[in-house]
Every structure is written in structure tokens, then in C-alpha cells.
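Page 42, continued from yesterday. The earlier attempt failed because a stray header line got pasted into the input along with the sequence. Redoing it now with the clean sequence only.
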Amino acid sequence: TRQIPLVEYTLNRLYGPRALKQQLRFARYARRAAIEIVHTYGFHANVFATAVARLAGVRVIVTSVQDMGIHLTPAKGRVQRLMCRWTDRIVANADAVRQRLIADGYDPARITVIRSGVDVARFTNKTAGRGIRQALGLPPGSPLVAVLSRVDRIKGIEYFLEAMATMADRFKDVHFLIVGDGDVAYQKELESYGTRLGLDGRVVFTGARTDVPEILSEVTVSVLPSLSEGLSTAILESMAAGVPVVATRVGGNAEAVEDGVTGLLVAPRDAAALGRAVCLLLENADLRHRLGRAGRQRAADRFSLERMVRETERLYEDLMVSSKSEARHGR
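This time it went through. C-alpha cells are written below.
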């Protein structure tokens, strides 16, 4: 295996003397290593590296934006737009993200959509998670309804708890998983809210996990109640695992989930609709299996890791050709 060097740039803030020192260190490394392409992901990397890479003489700079910008303050939004002027191409991971960028004043000609991809092969072993239930204290054979996401207010997990509370008496053997970590204060609020909703003993917060394929092999329905989303990796992984998905109709979710074909879509902040959709799947095994199979096929056809890598490589090659052509013509 080829050994690729890893260089870390530690920051506690994006501005100030420490940040400038790290940026100068990055610029020196880029020159010394003759780096020809820099690809940044997310607000912090975009602000840290794009202008510095250009000043360091990097030929091609690509910036990825993978969200709907809801977490950005107006000031951060202006900073990101300014930084993106130094880039050769902005990569959005969904058409919804591209449309958001255009609405925010970005040049449509400089935006390319390369949808996120997952390693579908990792999610094909349906017997891999047999020890998961015991590890998490879950009874064997009970249906599991899971949210796989960061524990973050933008994920709308309180609406998931409300929805599950409406059906808990109807499906007494169902248990609920929240897989991920994040905002500790928010998680404590959710735990208290679950208790008030009567879900004690039915909800498990697993924390961060590295065995998501194994967990998904045991999940009956995967739910994403987000209030905003770019293109959710959790949705794509659930589809790759053949698990039927219920998701909110926000951002790029509808580009992955075709309502009634590869999953079910509901309005955000609508716990009642979310609960009805999950109930429908719990009651109808044929529908679950049909949506799960169609979701797996869609993930393989449109959201594979191989396809994402291939399109990214092609973009790099095209931009390098353009850069060299411009250099020959003195532009």
C-alpha cells in the first residue's frame, strides 16, 4: 500500500497569530511538496487553506460544500463566499446544495455536483451484527427503529422521540436507537424528554460507533428527522444495507429517497407524519422488503464510492488540463 504522508495543522480558532503561523506552515509545505491540487472540505478548511494555497502557487484549488448553510452566520457566509473566489471549482454533493449556493450569489458555472458515495460492499452482510443486541442490552428479535446521525439540534431528534412515543404502546416490543455523539447538553435534554414521553427502557443512545454496518444489519427501519441536510451519508448507508428509510423532505434527501419507491419522505418537524410512516413500515413486511431492495439498488447504481471517486478524479484531470492550457497562453 502506498504510504501517504499525513500533516496536521492544529488550530483553536481560524484567525489570529497562531492561525497565521499554521497557514504559513501549510504554504511552505505546499511549495516544498510541489502540491498541484488542494481540495478543501467544509467551512473551516475552506477558510484556512484556499487563499493560502493560491498564494503558494498551487495550480488547482477545489472547495467542497456539503450542507445547506444553516449553521453559518451571515458573517461566516460572507467569508466563505470570499474564500471561494480563490477556488477553481466548487463541488456540491447534491443539486439542492448547488441551488442554495446559486441563490446565495455563487457563480453557477463554477459549481459541479458530485454526489456523496458509500462503500456499498461494506453493508451487504446481513448476519454481521448478531452480537450487537447483546452488547447494547437489546432483546433478541425485537424490531429496531434507529436514527444514525450526529447528536445535534439540526437533526431534529426530539421529533423522532415524539413520533416514537405515539406508537410505543401499539408496538410494545419495538426499541429505538440513536447512533452517534455530538452535543452533550442536547443529548441530556433528549434523554430527559424521552423519560417524560414514557420511553424509559425503550431508547438506547449508543454514542459514536465504528460498527455501523453491523448495527444496520439488525435495524428494521432507519429514520432521519433532520431539519436541514445536504446529502445524508446515514441515508445512503441505510439504503446500501437494504434498510427502509423514513426521512424528512429537506435538502438533498429527496435526491436519494424517492418517496414510495426507495423509502418514505415526510415534512420536517411533523412528528405525527413521521410516526405514521414508521408504523406503516412496521406493519407491512412486504413494503419494508420492497423499499429496502429498491434502496440498495439505488445506492449501488447512483451513490457508490467508486462512482464518486471516478467523478472526482475526472474533475481533477479536467481542471489540471485547463490550468496548464492557461499557463501556456499566459493567463
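Notes: The chain has two domains: 17-117+305-328, 120-302.
Reminder to self: strip header lines before submitting.
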